[in-house]
């Protein structure tokens, strides 16, 4: 059934609607469009015939050198205990839906980062007690030999994540001496070491030299235990390994699958895993910047910040509490405080602290009705069902419908008196040139029409009856509103598989061409069996993609 | 004048954009087909030396055979334009020394009665056009009753507010200027520091990339190329000058006798020129004014070993004028000017030098210490900015120095046809480009 899982990139020319498809190398206007796979939701796979097990003769996974992305860089720099907001220079990073095979360093980043670390090193050395605490030479003067040696240890263990060779300490000593000579004091030596370390490839990248694998061909390599410590900690914590991981690596305890599983469970049980889960779902539901209304609208950046907390609370609870299954993502509850509940007009929530709140199960459907992403997919007063539907199709059905061109994305259509948003968008599906994509995405978006552009539930649209009914393409089921759409998705094997695909992309930084089919099929089977996201994350560490790498020529 | 401050980002930006963008632009540009296609000049420097010159020892017979006073500039001949015969009419009629100071860069008469509205000096006009501040520095700057008091005796750079001149005050303390420019973040602005850090970092990329497979190696090499660009730009443009110790130099010695301070003038002058070149090459400023004294220059030049030793206003009419000493003094100033031009010519902006993009004006407030005359001003131009063509001596017998000022403004893309008092203007000089 391999063919069933091939993601087909939609290729539809939409010139009549002002869209230009990135690719137009297909003559097919409909046949190339898939939702969740060639068969569509609930449709039969195109299989039949002999099914090859991709794990019969597995290929080693290609693992390109990864650079730290922004969240990782911020977390790594937070060890200095210095304020970072607005200062960290953003690297060119690959994100969930913006993955590139080899994102390259850019001159603005290299320059900006050099400037940033220079300032950071200066602030660190201007605070001797803080420095002593940072490197752990308690009771010693900052300008002592003991503190200097602790500094080198700190650089190697924390900043280089344990990577060292016979010359590393000597090289750091040389950087220290050069700085001390130029700046004329001990502090300058420290600053030089920090400036060099924070710009080094051992810090900004996650280099893997690897080692041979017993019992496999020469194409196969596996990360060293130390490199595996980084794979684990970056996957679950968005940061480098802690002391326990480094110790395990030093003892050869990060090679066997059971060792990896034990560490994975430990890391996932830690508070630091929550921000990674949140980042995954935030990127999964991403679409653009919020539009804050002028005039009477009370939707503001401050409200959006509360919505982001609500979103984080919802997705982490759905993952870590209760069943932690796929269905939990669509459950009618959320995470609110008095101010945000008041904004939504929901009674009975008091206090500044956020807490779990059960919502009306006829109106709310978990992540589908989370305002943090719905408002970002909307324009100022226009709910933009096409955009919302596209996000759902892309993120939960792995549909290949392309995003609209940026030229039209912020276009706010003027209101038409007496017509609902849906009626105004009728052209999308009546015009054959538009219908190719919009008949796939618009109905999904119409299901969410009860949440307005500012994130509030509405019974009617300016007094007009809202029609939130629709069908999933391919006869995969019909729905009326978000709750019924959620039920369809929660039961859909394609949606389950799609979540696995998204986690693979997130965890391995894969673009589709690099997806290791053996790993993918194992994970899909595993998730189908356990239906638990934490178990899925643990099993990521048991796969070929996680444990091995292909030897680069 | 806007104060300006060096940030590391400014250094990097200036350096990076120059080092990386320019060669590309050079490639993109078609070959010069006509002079009209010359890009406007980007940087302006005015250098003032006191007292004029000894005209007979200054005027060359031809550009290839420079005069004794100009001989130190021989190496810069291809960049040099010797201007003969210009008449600084605007400075006739006021106080003999002061009017020359006021008029040199403004083209305006000193006497206020019945004068038209004053206009800002050329440096200020160009700074505004270029969106820059003016780095205005002076050596041994003082005059009149109170040391440091700004007056027509000692100011070249003027703005205009409410229909009257406003005087800029030069930076006179080189150590303070260094601190102001480079002191806020000394090492960050220090090219040697940056270079040392980058050397170590690049070494780490080079070493690690050797251990990786081809694709990963390529990625680190891309990063390493960026670091190398950064390093190249720092090495070539933005090394802040060494702050030489100047405890022997009292910038506030004023008009009084202070032979110790006098003896420090060469190193202070060199430091100021070095800071000027650094500030220009890093785009910290695009306009500089360098003033070698106030109008009276009541100081000795002990390193020249002049007969008579102390001088009081050494070029005052009848105040012990000695042609041989005067020639020696003005030759020394030429030597200093040659150093400035050489330093500017050393800065490579990617196929063009800093001097190529600049216009440097060298002048005084009068033509002769003995006569205070102003009808044959000893002016020099240097650089290639705006298409200025060097390696020439031009005679503008009887033309007004105001017309030179408007011509210089034109080199920067300013289209005015007069500069300063219109009564002294006819038309911009032709033949400079």
How would you describe what is shown here?
The complex is a heterodimer of chains A (553) and B (433). Chain A is mainly α and 553 residues long. Chain A is built from 24 helices and eleven strands. A three-stranded antiparallel beta sheet of chain A has the order 3-4-11. In chain A, strands 1-2 form a two-stranded antiparallel sheet. In chain B, the strands form two sheets. Chain B has a seven-stranded mixed beta sheet with strand order 3-6-1-7-8-2-9, with helices on both faces. In chain B, strand 4 and strand 5 form a beta hairpin. Chain B is globular and about 80 Å long. At the A-B interface, helix 2, helix 5, helix 6 and helix 7 of A face helix 1, helix 6 and helix 7 of B.
**Tally of helical segments of chain B:** 11
Question: Which radius of gyration of chain A do the C-alpha atoms yield?
Answer: 26 Å
Rg result of chain B: 23 Å
Number of strands of chain B: 9
Terminus-to-terminus distance of chain B: 30 Å
Helix content of chain B: 25-40%
Strand count of chain A: 11
Averaged pLDDT of chain B? 83
Beta-strand percentage range of chain A: 5-15%
Greatest contact between two chains: A-B, 39 and 38 residues
Q: Give the strand order, joined by hyphens, for the main sheet of chain B.
A: 3-6-1-7-8-2-9
Q: Report the principal-axis shape of chain B.
A: globular
Query: Which sequence of strands runs across the widest sheet of chain A?
Result: 3-4-11
Shape of chain A: globular
Helix fraction bin of chain A: 40-55%
């Amino acid at each position: 059934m391999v063919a069933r899982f091939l993601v087909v990139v939609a290729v539809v020319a939409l010139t009549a609607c002002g869209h230009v498809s990135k690719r137009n190398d297909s003559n097919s206007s409909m046949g190339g469009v898939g939702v969740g796979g060639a068969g569509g939701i609930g449709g039969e796979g195109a299989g039949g015939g002999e099914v090859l097990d991709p794990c019969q003769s597995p290929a080693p996974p290609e693992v390109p050198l990864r650079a730290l992305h922004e969240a990782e860089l911020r977390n790594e720099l937070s060890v200095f205990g210095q304020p970072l907001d607005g200062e960290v220079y953003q690297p060119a990073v690959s994100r969930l839906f913006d993955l590139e095979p080899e994102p390259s360093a850019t001159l603005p980043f290299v320059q900006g980062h050099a400037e940033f670390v220079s300032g950071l090193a200066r602030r660190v050395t201007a605070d001797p007690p803080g420095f002593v605490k940072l490197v752990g030479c308690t009771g010693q003067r900052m300008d002592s030999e003991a503190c200097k040696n602790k500094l080198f240890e700190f650089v190697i263990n924390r900043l280089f994540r344990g990577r060292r060779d016979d010359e590393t300490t000597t090289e750091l000593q040389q950087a220290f001496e050069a700085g001390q000579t130029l700046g004329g004091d001990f502090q300058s030596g420290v600053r030089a070491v920090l400036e060099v370390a924070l710009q080094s490839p051992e810090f900004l990248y996650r280099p893997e030299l690897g080692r041979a694998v017993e019992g496999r061909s020469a194409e196969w390599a596996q990360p060293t235990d130390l490199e595996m410590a980084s794979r684990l900690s970056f996957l679950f914590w968005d940061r480098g390994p802690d002391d326990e991981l480094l110790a395990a690596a030093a003892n050869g305890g990060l090679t066997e699958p059971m060792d990896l599983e034990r560490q994975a469970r430990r890391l996932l049980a830690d508070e630091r895993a929550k921000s990674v889960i949140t980042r995954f779902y935030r990127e999964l539901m991403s679409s653009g910047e919020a539009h804050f209304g002028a005039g009477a609208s009370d939707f503001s950046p401050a409200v959006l910040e509360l919505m982001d907390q609500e979103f984080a609370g919802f997705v982490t609870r759905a993952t870590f509490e209760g069943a932690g299954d796929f269905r939990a993502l669509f459950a009618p509850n959320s995470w609110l405080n008095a101010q945000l509940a008041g904004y939504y007009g929901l009674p009975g929530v008091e206090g500044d602290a956020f807490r779990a709140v059960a919502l009306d199960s006829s109106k709310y459907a978990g992540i589908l009705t989370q305002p943090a992403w719905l408002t970002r997919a909307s324009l100022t007063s226009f709910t933009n069902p096409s955009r919302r539907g596209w996000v759902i199709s892309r993120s939960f059905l792995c549909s290949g419908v392309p995003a609209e061109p940026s030229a039209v994305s912020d276009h706010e259509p003027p209101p038409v008196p007496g017509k609902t948003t849906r009626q105004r968008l009728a052209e999308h599906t009546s015009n054959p040139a538009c219908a190719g994509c919009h008949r796939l995405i618009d109905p999904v978006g119409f299901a969410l029409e009860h949440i307005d552009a500012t994130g509030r539930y509405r019974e009617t649209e300016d007094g007009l009856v809202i029609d939130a009914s629709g069908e999933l393409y391919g006869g995969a089921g019909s729905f009326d509103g978000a709750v019924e759409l959620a039920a369809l998705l929660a039961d859909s094997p394609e949606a389950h598989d799609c979540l696995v695909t998204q986690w693979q992309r997130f965890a391995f930084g894969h673009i589709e061409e690099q997806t290791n089919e053996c790993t993918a099929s194992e994970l899909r089977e595993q998730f189908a069996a356990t239906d638990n996201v934490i178990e899925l994350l643990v099993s990521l560490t048991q796969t070929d993609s996680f444990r091995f790498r292909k030897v680069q020529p | 004048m806007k104060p300006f401050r060096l940030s590391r980002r400014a250094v990097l930006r200036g350096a990076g954009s120059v080092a990386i963008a320019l060669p590309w632009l050079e490639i993109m540009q078609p070959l010069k087909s006509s002079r009209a296609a010359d890009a406007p000049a980007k940087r302006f420097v005015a250098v003032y030396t006191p007292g004029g010159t000894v005209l007979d020892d200054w005027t060359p017979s031809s550009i290839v055979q420079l005069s004794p006073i100009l001989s130190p500039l021989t190496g810069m001949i291809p960049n040099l334009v010797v201007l003969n015969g210009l008449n600084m009419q605007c400075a006739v009629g006021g106080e003999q020394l002061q009017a020359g100071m006021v008029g040199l860069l403004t083209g305006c008469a000193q006497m206020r009665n019945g004068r038209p509205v004053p206009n800002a000096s050329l440096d200020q006009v160009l700074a505004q056009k270029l969106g820059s501040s003016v780095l205005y520095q002076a050596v041994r700057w003082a005059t009149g009753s109170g040391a440091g008091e700004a007056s027509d005796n000692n100011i070249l750079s003027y703005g205009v507010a409410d229909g009257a001149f406003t005087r800029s005050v030069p930076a006179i303390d080189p150590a303070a200027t260094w601190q102001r420019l480079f002191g806020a973040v000394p090492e960050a602005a220090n090219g040697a520091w940056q270079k040392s850090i980058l050397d170590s970092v690049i070494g780490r990329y080079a070493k690690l990339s050797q251990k990786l497979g081809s694709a990963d190696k390529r990625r680190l090499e891309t990063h390493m190329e960026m670091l190398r660009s950064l390093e190249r730009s720092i090495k070539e443009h933005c090394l802040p000058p060494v702050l030489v110790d100047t405890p022997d130099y009292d910038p506030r010695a004023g008009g009084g006798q202070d032979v110790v301070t006098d003896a420090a003038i060469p190193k202070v002058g060199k430091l100021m020129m070095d800071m000027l070149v650094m500030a220009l090459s890093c785009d910290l400023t695009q306009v500089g004014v360098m003033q070698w004294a106030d109008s009276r220059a009541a100081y000795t030049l002990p390193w020249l070993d002049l007969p008579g030793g102390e001088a009081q206003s050494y070029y005052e009419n009848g105040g012990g004028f000695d042609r041989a000493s005067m020639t020696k003094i003005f030759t020394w100033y030429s030597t200093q000017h040659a150093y400035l031009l050489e330093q500017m010519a050393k800065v490579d902006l990617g196929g063009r030098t800093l001097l190529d993009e600049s216009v440097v004006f060298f002048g005084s407030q009068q033509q002769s210490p003995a006569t205070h005359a102003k009808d044959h001003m000893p002016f020099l131009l240097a650089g290639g900015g705006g298409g200025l063509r060097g390696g020439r001596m031009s005679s503008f017998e009887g033309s007004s120095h105001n017309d030179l000022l408007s011509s210089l403004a034109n080199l920067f893309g300013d289209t005015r046809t007069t500069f300063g008092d219109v009564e002294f203007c006819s038309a911009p000089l032709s033949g400079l480009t």
